[in-house]
Amino acid sequence: MALVTLVLLQIFVGAAGAHLLTSDVLVEGEPETIVASAEPPPVPVITAGPVLAAGGNGPLPAKGTLAERLTEALGDPALGRSVGAAVLDAETGALLFGSGPATGITPASTTKVVTAVASMASLGPDARLSTRVVRGSSPGSIILVGGGDPTLASPRTAGSPVYPRPASLATLASRTARALKAAGVSKVTVAYDDFLYTGPRTAATWKPGYVPEGSVAPVTALMIDEGRASRGSDQRVSDPSRATHAAFVSLLSKYGVTVSKSARRSKAPAGAQELARVDSAPVYALVERALTLSDNDLSEALARHVAIKEGEPASFDGGAAAVGKVLTRLGAAKGVRVFDGSGLSPKNRIAPEALARLVSTAASPANPGLHPIISGMPVAGFSGTLGHRFGKIHSAYGLIRAKTGTLDGVNTLAGMTTTRGGRLVTFAFMADKVPPGWGKAEAALDRLAAAVAAS
């Protein structure tokens, strides 16, 4: 029979750490014998409990301790005089701590959690946004049809190492040229259709400086590089649809198709023959990107696609109404009032408890289709908008996933963590009358989240 070696370990936990004390060898043979080492006889192995209880179901943190820590931290003057907080047990939904938990506060970009939940629940994780080219109503005419994919990449950004990999305008032009040549067509006129969206391109509740400063592009159904004027720049073009049409025409010419001079906006005929198309990454990956990077353009696009799916106009108002419908179906609409998908509107209001409950809904084993919302949240000290956060609070690195929010006078943080005892909890900390010096408010919010993780 084979020789079987059993290593018996004893772990002592103390100032000296863990130590290997004995090693005995058991030999199987005929007759069975024990070959003993010169070490003392073995003692029973003593093991500690798991570092994290399975499923995040460790003991609840002591409410008194949690309340004491958070109440003190909420009093930080850097947060100003309008602060709300909620900490929930992810499994039961019980409110473990609240400070004005039902009072609506300007959420800034934590609004994207609302948009993400509605997108995943309405559109489904595998839906894709398609940009197409179809035949026009007259011979030799084609129409570039926007499908509301703001991540569509121009040649100048197509090779960038980004996740998820975007669809390419060059690929669409190449496929179009191939289809035209196969049909014996070498000269065309090109119009564009961006009629998928309706209403104004900027929200009435937005501050007028958002587009000029590069926070967001005018919202259209046809754009490349999220409306950016150049690679690596935040500057946005004034008309993303026309800019995308011009780039497409240029690419067609490179692929051997002569294009008559045209930049006409024209609605594609119903049932028009499709010549070529490219598809975005699936919605679950788009949601992850929107949350990790706090992507305003993508969040606005997702809100409009929810509107289309829910039978509402693909506008700011329609998106807000559709998101409300979806949250109502989920039983999560109470305490949420939004006017856009990105959180740029200072008129949005979300109660801290409602926001923390949305995170719990996304994390619940009962909602596996919403889990990309959790995986898309930045990780403390490592990724996205939390990559530079938490400073010297090294104990929180990697333990907190959360969405950030920042506007003038507004700082918010909503996410989840596992407590010291292994309990999964969600939280929302929100302040919307922050005095100048927002970096100090961010640090105060980080300390609040770290206090929850340490409880």
Automatic annotation (TrEMBL):
<dbReference type="GO" id="GO:0009002">
    <property type="term" value="F:serine-type D-Ala-D-Ala carboxypeptidase activity"/>
</dbReference>
<comment type="similarity">
    <text>Belongs to the peptidase S13 family.</text>
</comment>
<dbReference type="InterPro" id="IPR012338">
    <property type="entry name" value="Beta-lactam/transpept-like"/>
</dbReference>
<dbReference type="Pfam" id="PF02113">
    <property type="entry name" value="Peptidase_S13"/>
</dbReference>
<keyword id="KW-0378">Hydrolase</keyword>
<protein>
    <submittedName>
        <fullName>D-alanyl-D-alanine carboxypeptidase/D-alanyl-D-alanine-endopeptidase</fullName>
        <ecNumber>3.4.16.4</ecNumber>
    </submittedName>
</protein>
<keyword id="KW-0645">Protease</keyword>
<dbReference type="InterPro" id="IPR000667">
    <property type="entry name" value="Peptidase_S13"/>
</dbReference>
<keyword id="KW-0121">Carboxypeptidase</keyword>
